[in-house]
Every structure is written in structure tokens, then in C-alpha cells.
Request: fold
Amino acid sequence: MLTAHNLSKSYGISPVFNNITFSINPGDRAGLIGPNGVGKSTLIRILVGEESPDSGTVICNSQIGYLSQGFEPDPDLSLGHLIGGPQSNEVSLEEQLISLSEELANRPDDPQLQQAYDAVLNKMMQPVTADSGSVLAALGLDTLPADMPVKHLSGGQKMRLSLALLLLKQPEILLLDEPTNHLDIEMLEWLENWLASYTGGVFIVSHDRTFIDRVCNRILDLDPHTQTIREYAGNYTDYLEQKQKELEKHTEAWKEQEYQIRRMKQDIRRTKEQAKGVELSTKPNQPTIRRYAKKVAKKGKSREKKLDRYLDSEDRVEKPKSSWQVKIEFEEQHLGKQVLEMADLAVGYAADQPLISDITQEVQLGERIVLTGPNGTGKTTLLKTIAGELEPLSGRLKLGSSIKLGYMSQEQELLDPNRSPLEHIQALTPMSQTDARSYLHFYLFKDDDSLRPIKDLSFGERARLTLAGLVVQGCNFLLLDEPINHLDIPSRTLFESALKSYSGTILAIVHDRYFVQSFATEVWWVRPGEADVPARIEREIR
Reply:
């Protein structure tokens, strides 16, 4: 269905990937993984024709459905314009087939026309798997008014809308770039079930480990060191097991090699010392012994050249390289036991229509709380209220006296797009340019990356910069709104480890089930009410 053959791409003198070859066939669920910046989104844009490779080809005779990371339609368009109905101008498959037939009659030898005709014909023969009513209902969009402008949708609703638009086209191949961003657990499980019944091929870029585990039957690992793809059969758990065995085997081979190199160097040193010792302890009238010493010295030099050739050869086993990860270190915090107290709190934007009401909860020192639930129920509104960006509609909210609050927003709108990462960090704390650049280096801002405008950074780079800002300020209570959405899998793992050793307190909105399972000491479930009844919070101690 879709084949990438020997694809290579570079930006200037920096290679992104080199000689990549793989195929996506019906029934495939291929997950592409790798650190941020390794070229995953670039590869998927090449597959859909938005970018061109430096070399190699992409062959596809099927209809592609592409979900990009950032869904940004005209904010003034209504849902009705985008979804369809009376306002939709989409040409039916029958009309497309008739039009292509007429063109083929005039140009019967045109291969592109023939491919387009075959693709439409194949699509007409596929069973109907989606209709607007069922898809919109499943994604929780059926209750929204058709005249609602897109700009009024939340981040999660925009992602669900982009999924609906994609699924309604019923493509033969799905290319999904971070499809789980901003989806709540209920929507994630619906998407997993939908993909399980989908007959076409699927190519997924995702950092959601549980999602990849449940959906994928192949893993394509894009290595930042070799700029190539390595394929592994099975899901993400299978990949981890195979990767660990490879690493252990590689490490053992390297250790054995290093032992042999040390032994050879010691042997060469002993040989040289022996020859030199004989030369120094003998006199010119002892030529036989001196000739023997010269032979020993020559033997030592020969062994040294042999070792040098081996060290420069391709047969040498390279030292296993650790992944280039985000380094996150939190200083130990000192604060009172009481961090946050909420009593009969109601949050929202209209006093007569609170999103969540009757919130009576306490947050204690060291707790790691995950706030989760359906999109649009008021989770972000609650965090903004705690952060002081919104006033409570009613009730009481009190922070501990020694609290230094750090808030990481979902949309990253708190970053000044015209500043550079270097200027952002220096604005937060007195730090020299050299120290600030060294600090940012730990967050993967290499060379001149720290001098680029924030508006030119990727989603993942902005997320890492926000984290760097929280850490450098020494915050002891973190409010994190979808903090790992744009972090790659290695960085998510390291982020979780750092948070576990953090002695402060964390309240985070997260839908990543793997993260919830490994991180949370308790979960606050936002349960939506019926009709006009506000949502409420149910507390689950883990």
C-alpha cells in the first residue's frame, strides 16, 4: 500500500535520517518512536507529500488520511462548515469515479489517472465503517451546536474534531502524528477500539506507551546516532525486551573488547620495558643479548601497530551510547505540611453555570496527584483558579504560607514567543549567559538552539523550556497541565523519575495511563454531571 525506499533527508550539513526503507500494508499497526528532534514528523510529512526527501522515493497507490500534530483550521469557521451536512461541498465517490472515467477516456495511458481511479474504486468497495453521527457521538462532539466557531473549542475538543474529520473520510492508510495529545482516557480507549476494527494500514508517531502497547504490532525505532530505522516485531513491551537484550549483548561485547585491549597494551608495555632494560643493563661487548633485545623491541612495535590498526578499524565494538535525555534535577524543598485547602469551591466562567462545584479537598506535602477525566469538564479551569489566574465562583481556596507555585500551562501561552530560551531563563533568575547556556544544554538546547526565538521552537522544545523555567525558580508546588504531551518516550521516563524524587507537591492533569500508574499517589476523577449539573471530583487513594 505504502512503501518508503531509501529515504534520506538533511537540513544543511545536519543529516536527519539516512537510507530509510519500510512498508505499510493492510492490517499493519506500525509505531514510529525516537527522541524529539530525530525527524519523526519530518518523515511523516515526506510520506504525505508535504516535504520532499533529498533522495529516495515514496510509492503509494492508496488514499492517505493524515493527522498532523497541530490542528489549526480557520478559527472563525463553524463546526457545520468542517463536519459537513448541508454546508459541505465534498464531492461524492461516485462523482469522483465518473470524472476520472471521463479523463481516462481521453488519456488512457496516464499512470497517475489510473492510480487515482483504482484508489477511488477500491474505496467504494470498502465496507462503510464510519458515519458522521456515530463518530461525532463517540468523540463527544454531537452535542455541540453546528454554528459554534472552532476558536471556542478546547484543546481536547480540537483534537477530537481533527480525528472526526479524518475518520469520516475513511482513508485506506492512516498517518497519525501524536493522535493522543489532549485526549482523555475515555477517548483514548474509544480510538484504540476503533483502530482494532480498522482494516487499513496505520502508521503512528506517538509517545503514549500504553497506546502503542495496545495498538501496534510493529515498532520502528528511529535512532538519533545512526539516523536509520530498526524494526522490531510486536508492541512496545516486546520492543523494550528486545532492545534490552540487544543492549546487554552489546555491553558484554564492548566489555570483553576493552579487557582484551587493556591486556594487549599491558603486554606491549612489558615487552618494551623488557627490551629497554636489557639494553641498559648490557655492554657493547654483549652483541648477542643486545640483538635479542632489539628483536623483542621490534616485536613490541609490531604489536603496537597491530593494536592501532584494530582501534581504527570498523571491526571495533563502539561503546554503548546512552540516549540523549532531558536532565531534570529538583532541589530539596522545605515547606509546611498543608499545601492547599479547598472548601465548597466552585470554578468556571459564569456564576450560574459552574464547571465543577462542591470541591472540598486538601493537598498535603509530598503528594503526587493526577487530575483526570473527560475533556471539557473544567480540569484546566481548576488549575487556573488554583494558580490565581481565575477567581473562584464560590467557596474557599487557601495556599500554604511557604508555597512557591509553579504553573505549566497546556497551551504554553506563558512563553514570550519573541524571546529566546536564553533570555527566558535569564529573566527568571540572575544567571550569566555562559551559565544559562550550560543550564539549557541539560534540556537539549545545544549550540545556538538557546538563541532561537521561542516562536520557532517545536512543541517538545517549548515543553522542555517551560520545565527548565520551573526548576530554575525552585518552585515547591507544581501545577502541570498535560506536562508530557510533547515529550518523547525517553524524556517522559526521565521526567517521571525526576518527579518521583521531588520532595515538593505536584497536581498534574494527565491522560497517559502509563504515567498515572507509575506516578500518582492518588487520582482525582472529574465526573461530569447530567444535563446542567456541574461536574464533581471523586478522590481515589492509590
